[in-house]
Amino acid sequence: MLNQKSNLTRRGALAACAGVGALGLTGCGKGREILYAADAQIDGYPTVEAVRFMARRLEELTDGRMKMNIYPGAQLGAEKDTLEITIFGGLDLNRVNIAPLNSIARETFIPALPFLYNSIAHARAAMDGAPGQAILDALEPHGLIGLCYYDSGARSFYNGRRPIHEPDDMKGMKIRVQNSDLYVSLVEALGANATPMPYGEIYTGITQGVIDGAENNWPSYYTSRHFEVAKYYTLDQHVLAPEVLVMSAHRWNRLSDDDKQAVLQAARESVPYMRQLWDALVDEARETVLASGVEVVEDVDKSLFAARMEPVWDRFITTPKMQNIVDDILSMEEASA
Ligand code: GTR
């Protein structure tokens, strides 16, 4: 059993060492480094396992000098809150979706534009390439270092009221969205009411009728068990926005150049590992959810959803720099097809 005294002593040491930070989850001392990482997804989810992989690589690359402690399942709070703590320097690493970064750096709207990509391969190529790097770089002036992207597949609508075949079926529905103006606009463009709310509150929100549904990819719909309470899933695939692993610039700036390189290398090496786990979980999620009796609407005329959502592009792409990144992504379409 963990002895309470040593636990308290450790907390005191952490707080003293961190100097700043609401959580004080940053570790240092005698050349040894402990990086603290948060994730809103449950233990075992591909993003969590990818950060664990990164931790093992980081330990190897630094001969055991750098270690990581990972807190999955939103133990440290919802993404919006843990991001603020990360920027402030109270938490070292945070794996989040791109959406909660939207209010921090406008460039992060780009990968969440509706129907931007023509395939998963296109999304991966764009995020692995120059456009993805330009978006990560845009985070730095806001106190975050973007280390890498992870997959998040395609997000689609689900609800507990009726099957959605076309946008008009969503009229008046209350749909939970992430904390992002772009997502609010997307849902409102369809005639539904957007309700921003943390991920962890969706299940109860649906059972209590606060919301009718939400939108997410297969693995999240499955592992969050939302499929138990929202039995209609429509594969409109409106957004292929990625997950992002960010680091607090406070912490980053205190690392030696060699340690920065090791962190970056370990993060990058975790990406192909994550993708393997991701592809397998998409299959498992689809099979299990279908077997549970969920009604999946596969035959969707996506052009109807795309037409309604199109005005969102002009509303959120507001600078020539952003437009150039969008153009770069669009020009990669053929190469990745
Ligand atoms: C998931 C993502 C989470 C969180 C969640 C949400 O796909 O992995 O980080 O952003 O969506 O909808 O809040």
From TrEMBL:
<protein>
    <submittedName>
        <fullName>C4-dicarboxylate ABC transporter</fullName>
    </submittedName>
</protein>
<dbReference type="GO" id="GO:0055085">
    <property type="term" value="P:transmembrane transport"/>
</dbReference>
<keyword id="KW-0732">Signal</keyword>
<dbReference type="Pfam" id="PF03480">
    <property type="entry name" value="DctP"/>
</dbReference>
<dbReference type="InterPro" id="IPR004682">
    <property type="entry name" value="TRAP_DctP"/>
</dbReference>
<dbReference type="InterPro" id="IPR038404">
    <property type="entry name" value="TRAP_DctP_sf"/>
</dbReference>
<dbReference type="InterPro" id="IPR006311">
    <property type="entry name" value="TAT_signal"/>
</dbReference>
<dbReference type="GO" id="GO:0030246">
    <property type="term" value="F:carbohydrate binding"/>
</dbReference>
<dbReference type="GO" id="GO:0030288">
    <property type="term" value="C:outer membrane-bounded periplasmic space"/>
</dbReference>
<dbReference type="InterPro" id="IPR018389">
    <property type="entry name" value="DctP_fam"/>
</dbReference>
